[in-house]
Amino acid sequence: MTTSDLLALWTEATAAGRLAFPRCAACGAWNWYPMPACRACGASNMRMEEVPARGAVHSWTRVHRAFGGEPVAALPYVVVIVAIDGAPGVRLACLQDEPGDPVIDSPVALRPVEGEKGTGRWLCRGTATTG
Fold it and tell me: Between 71 and which of 9, 66, 89, 128 could a Cys-Cys bridge form, CB atoms 3.0 to 4.6 Å apart?
């Protein structure tokens, strides 16, 4: 399966409200960002596997400037790197869906950005503290 095929499956899953990542059928390693061959064993037999839409805050940053034109959210916005619970080693960049500063290692729930079918963008909630 090519990288383009895997990305098409990713956007289809996101559009349907499902979180899925490529996983090697040979060794079981998760491979995100998708590549045509497994990073762990080199096999080219990838499959998309659905996981629960939750994880934990790994890192975050507050963005104050638009990149390449229109911002993806009202400025400033917070991008959170989420370690996905059901896919060890997979981290996904998400937009924070609440005010306050994220807390590292706090649990989060994810949901796809509504109205942007097929973009692969996800929002996360449960990250912030207002203190």
Answer: 66
> What tens digit of pLDDT does each residue of 62-80 get?
999 887 766 667 889 899 9
Compute the 3-state secondary structure of the chain and give helix, strand, coil in percent, each to the nearest 5. 10, 40, 50
At 13, which helix (H) or strand (E)?
helix 3-15
Question: How many other C-beta atoms lie within 10 A of the C-beta of residue 31?
Answer: 20
Neighbours of 39 (CB within 10 A): 14
Strand partners, 81: 59, 93
Contact 40, 27 (CB under 8 A): yes
Distance from C-alpha of 111 to C-alpha of 123, rounded to nearest angstrom: 5
Instruction: Kindly provide the b/e burial profile for residues 95-113, where b requires at least 16 CB atoms within 10 angstroms of the residue's own CB.
Output: bbbeeeebbeeeebebebb
Strands 107-112 and 101-102: unpaired
